[in-house]
Specification:
The structure holds two protein chains of two kinds. Chain A is 26% helix and 33% strand. Chain A has four helices and ten strands. A five-stranded mixed beta sheet of chain A has the order 2-1-10-5-6. Chain B has two domains: 196 residues, Orthogonal Bundle (Cytochrome Bc1 Complex, Chain D, domain 2), CATH 1.10.760; 147 residues, Orthogonal Bundle (Cytochrome Bc1 Complex, Chain D, domain 2). Chain B is 32% helix and 4% strand. Chain B is built from 14 helices and four strands. In chain B, the strands form two sheets. Chain B has a two-stranded antiparallel sheet with strand order 1-2. Chain B has a two-stranded antiparallel sheet with strand order 3-4. In chain B, helix 1 packs across helix 6, helix 3 packs across helix 6 and helix 8 packs across helix 13. The chains are: A alpha+beta, B mainly alpha. Chain A: This is Oxidoreductase molybdopterin-binding domain-containing protein. Chain A: Keywords: Signal.
């Protein structure tokens, strides 16, 4: 049994490596995240763009019930860069705006703009690219939303590929 | 899990086309009313340029069963989508006009109103757009652009019907696809035993009860919880979640699936999670029809899940699967059988009108 497991683990890491190499080579020029919708400057970002942005550290409890250190970009910073109505502009009808975050597997979750804005919310919601100092694993990364303090991590959407700002109609 | 309270939502879709009634005309006319349980939710859009009308649905149904749409005049949509099999065809791969097989397994046409990304790889975003694919595909109906429209134009009844639906007797491929889409939106299945159970009108047997627990729970050996985590991907009132996953059929997928659409390496060998509605009627299973029974599907999830970097994390937890006992497999299958909706497969509104 042990040897089988070891073999499996071996295959696993080898194939991860191959895929990482493949994705690594491809991702040089590949869009990894888009920020679109009710924004003035829609963004199509590559890995390097996101790596270069300011990172914030937060602690959060994953499904395993343990605290982990996540590092990533404040979602509100991405929204600011795209020219969404955050900060001083978040009032009036702009309070009926929300964000839909989509994953590669089709999963979608919603945040109201004030949940993400530092002038409203006391917690920092980030687009994490690492956990406990390591990049996020297959099926989780490359990017995952982390909502510190939320009791159930169902909105910690994995494999994030797009963020869209919309008006509630 | 959400339960619906027996209340049906009535969505009256207002027609842009005026509903004239000609004396002695048997064709029903006027806005079409969609009926569905509240728990299914209203997350769907009907294109503004194709509002649902009774005459549109009537025409769509005639077209769905019309072999004149194919280049050989021998194959209709219903050849590969048969009502008795919840609109599948019982084959691993379907056979088109030239006797060649399709690339993938025919899909059940059920509750399409709520599907936003059609096909196994999600490449089509509306039923109107989708219908033109089988119409023109050489391994399906093989009609050249305009060919099917021309064949129908020559008939007696169709020009009259198109005039009633679209205000003009000119038949085009686009109008054919619009009418087909209207009919397909009416294919709602909401009266299986499972729906009746959710509405408090059916009591589960002990085996079905155990099967439901396995379906809904995620396994946790520490807490001694058994489960197959099926609901994570196949759960909800509609037994459908619009997700794309690799469920471990192959270590190295030969059909790249979703990747061919998105170009993302992480999408390699991912396919849309199919609905489990009427699953006992829609064998063979999976995008290539590789399993001919539910027993084989459960053997897969139990013992043969192939590890790969694309494998969905919910299935990667234990090596090769959930290791279900024979009794657990029996229970799960008895639960899956509750998804059969016999009123759907016998609904005269969906049957061959010719």
């Amino acid at each position: 049994m042990k040897t089988i497991n070891a073999q499996l683990a071996g295959c696993w890491s080898l194939s991860v490596l191959i895929v990482c190499l493949l994705t690594g080579l491809k991702s040089q020029a590949q869009t990894v995240l888009t920020v679109t919708g009710e924004v003035t400057k829609p963004l199509t970002l590559q890995t390097a763009d996101l790596t270069a942005m300011a990172h914030t550290q937060v602690t959060g409890k994953d499904r395993d019930g343990k605290d982990h250190q996540y590092s990533g970009i404040l979602v509100v910073d991405l929204l600011k860069q795209a020219g969404a109505t955050v900060g001083g502009e978040l009032r009036g009808e702009n309070l009926t705006k929300y964000v839909i975050v989509k994953a590669i597997d089709g999963y979608e979750v919603l945040f109201a703009l004030p949940e993400l804005d530092a002038e409203f919310a006391s917690r920092s919601i980030i687009l994490a690219d690492s956990v406990d100092g390591a990049s996020l694993g297959p099926g989780v990364g490359p990017y995952r939303i982390v909502v510190p303090g939320e009791k159930k991590p169902a909105r910690w959407i994995r494999e994030v590929k797009s963020i869209e700002v919309r008006f509630a109609k | 899990m959400r339960f619906w309270i027996g209340s049906f939502i009535v969505a009256v879709v207002l027609s842009g086309v005026c509903a004239w009634t000609v004396a002695d005309d048997p064709v029903p006319a006027g806005p079409y009313t969609l009926l569905y349980p509240a728990s299914f939710g209203g997350r769907f859009t009907i294109p503004a340029d194709n509002p649902m009308t009774q005459e549109g649905v009537y025409l769509g149904r005639l077209l769905f069963y019309e072999p004149k749409l194919s280049s050989t005049q021998t194959i209709s949509c219903a050849s590969c989508h048969q009502q008795a099999r919840a609109f599948t065809d019982g084959l691993a791969l379907s056979i088109g006009v030239h006797g060649k097989t399709t690339r993938r397994n025919s899909m059940s046409l059920t509750n399409l109103l709520w599907v936003r990304q059609l096909f196994w790889d999600g490449r089509s975003t509306s039923l109107e757009e989708q219908a033109l694919v089988p119409l023109g595909h050489t391994d399906e109906m093989g009609s050249k652009p305009g060919e099917a429209a021309k064949a129908l134009q020559k008939t007696i009844p169709y020009p009259v019907l198109f005039k009633q639906v679209f205000g003009s007797d000119t038949i085009t491929d686009v109008r054919i696809s619009k009418a087909l889409a209207q009919f397909e939106r009416t294919l709602i299945s909401a009266n299986s035993r499972y729906d009746q159970y959710a509405a408090g009108q059916y009591q589960l047997t002990e085996s079905e009860q155990r099967g439901m627990q396995l379906f809904n729970r995620s396994p946790s050996p520490e807490r001694n919880v058994r489960g197959g985590n099926c609901a994570h991907c196949h759960g909800g009132a509609k037994l459908f979640q619009e997700l794309f996953h690799n469920n471990g059929l192959d270590k190295q997928a030969t059909d790249s699936g979703r990747q061919a659409i998105t170009g993302l390496a992480l999408d390699q060998g991912r396919f849309r999670v199919p609905t489990l509605r009427n699953i006992a009627l829609t064998a063979p299973y999976m995008h290539d029809g590789r399993f001919n029974s539910l027993e084989k599907v459960l053997d897969h999830y139990s013992e043969h899940i192939q590890p790969s970097p694309m494998l969905a994390p919910e299935l990667a937890g234990q090596p090769n699967g959930f290791h279900l006992t024979t009794g657990e497999k029996t229970d799960l299958i008895s639960f899956l059988r509750l998804f059969t909706d016999s009123t759907f497969i016998h609904n005269p509104q969906f049957a061959n009108p010719h």
